[in-house]
Amino acid sequence: MGKRLVNRLTPLAIKRATKSGYYLDGNGLFLVVGKGTGAEVGGKSWVFRYKVQGKTTEMGLGSADIVTLSEARQKMTDARKLLLDGIDPLKHRQEVLRIRRHAEQSARTFEECARALIESKQSEWKNPKHRKQWVSTLETYAYPKIGSMDVADIDTAHVMRVLTPIWIQKNETASRLRGRIEAVLDWARVHEHRVGENPARWKGHLDKLLSAPGKVQRETSQHHAALAYSEIGAFLRDLRERDGMGARALEFAILTAARSGEVRGMLWSEVDLDAGIWTIPGIRMKAGKEHRVSLSDDAVKLLEALPRRNELVFPAPRGGPLSDMSLTAVLKRMGRADLTAHGFRSTFRDWSGEMSAHPREVIEHALAHQLADRVEAAYQRGDLFAKRKVLMADWAKYCSTIPQAADVLPMAGKRKTK
Q1: Which residues pair with 57 in a beta bridge?
Q2: pLDDT for res 381
Q3: CA distances from 294 to 41, 79, 131, 283 (A)
Q4: Average model confidence (pLDDT) for the chain?
Q5: Highest-confidence range of 36-40, 43-47, 403-407, by mean pLDDT?
Q6: Cβ–Cβ contacts within 10 Å for residue 160, how many?
Q7: What is the DSSP letter of 138?
Q8: Which residues contact 286 (CB under 8 A, 6 or more apart)?
Q9: What Pfam families does the annotation carry (predicted)?
């Protein structure tokens, strides 16, 4: 039986190779033993020998003291795959190293870029107050969270981490901060410190995740039209007969008593279907804190029936998250323009307070509300998840129940939340 054409070497053969020269393993992979002095054995290393346009080239794969036989074979295989695609593996490695060195040389933190931009704008800002406002907002809100980050690594999640905690309470400041972050990232891109789209841009991006500036205060001060809880069963029955991602998102929002924005930005990576838990990261929560949502069996079945087009659970038809008007459009098509998606949280709150025996603090936790009583909040450190699980299961069961006409109280179909 003839000698093997590949995988000729063994760990023992490598150890015993003391004479200087090339020892073939196969497919162009060689163990190279260098020349030693006197009784000293020369160093051992790996080399991949190949031809490109008739020219023989050697590519070093590392020292045999560091790179094992199996690792050397894998490196050789990777190089051969590049050759099959018409790519010279040695030139490819040199280009990767060049790009890496360039990235290291051009790496800048967000704070460094911000300060450089502010310095460059000095002559344009006639009012010193303008510069002071720029510096103040960035130092207060941006630097603590993204200031030390490589500006090239900043993405939408990082920008949302800065903006979300203050978007409602300090909307004017938050809106200006967003524009300043966008300007810093644009400056970094022009100066080749980052590439790609600006994650702080508003139109067509953050406007899908955050309420529009100027409307936030009106939204938080106005009451949201809510459905009487006695009508939720019939409403949900009609909603389930409708197709479309907007209808499913609204149904899911009702079953979980979650905010519209939390549902529209929901990611599959946040969901554990087996455990029935949806974990919303703090960057997407109104209070800026992580919140666990207990998923009823009906909510889990809804998610299991959805197609997985991308990371978003409820993507828009053309990609990206659903707009804040998608759920409103569903209500209009159902002839219920008198209602709002947010109002169903009030429906849940009224039902749980008037029709269930669940404690108030459990209900408030389910709505991700902060307890108003600071003393009570201090003692209530847990999230009461086990109790909330029972609450949400009871709510889902009630939502699937359509009372008989005699059982329905004469309540108005539209009312205002408190």
Answers
A1: 50
A2: 45
A3: 66, 49, 47, 19
A4: 85
A5: 43-47
A6: 21
A7: I
A8: 164, 168, 259, 368
A9: Arm-DNA-bind_3, Phage_int_M, Phage_integrase
CA proximity to 69, closest of 5, 4, 15: 15
In this structure, what token pair is assigned to residue 20? 């200087």
Total-model pTM: 0.47
Instruction: Catalogue all structural domains in the chain, each as residue range(s) with its CATH number.
Output: 11-105 (3.30.160.390), 110-220 (1.10.150.130), 223-416 (1.10.443.10)
DSSP 327-355: HHHHHHHTT-TT--TTHHHHHHHHHHHHT
Q: How far apart are CA 384 and CA 394, in angstroms?
A: 16
Using DSSP, state whether 370 is helix, strand or coil: coil
Question: Given pLDDT bands bounded at 50, 70 and 90, which one contains residue 42?
Answer: low
- Cα angle: 193, vertex 205, 178; to 5 degrees: 65
For 52, phi then psi, to 5°, come to -135, 120
Total Cβ atoms within 10 A of residue 48: 24
Three-state DSSP class for residue 392: helix
Consecutive H or E run containing 165: helix 156-167
Residue type, 159: V
Q: By 3-state DSSP, what share of the chain in percent is helix, strand and coil, each rounded to 5?
A: 50, 10, 40
pLDDT in tens, 282-325: 888 877 788 999 999 999 999 999 999 889 999 998 888 898 78
Long-range contacts of 282-289 (CB under 8 A, 24+ apart): 282/161, 282/164, 283/157, 283/160, 283/161, 283/164, 284/160, 284/164, 284/209, 285/164, 285/368, 286/164, 286/168, 286/259, 286/368, 287/165, 287/368, 287/370, 288/164, 288/165
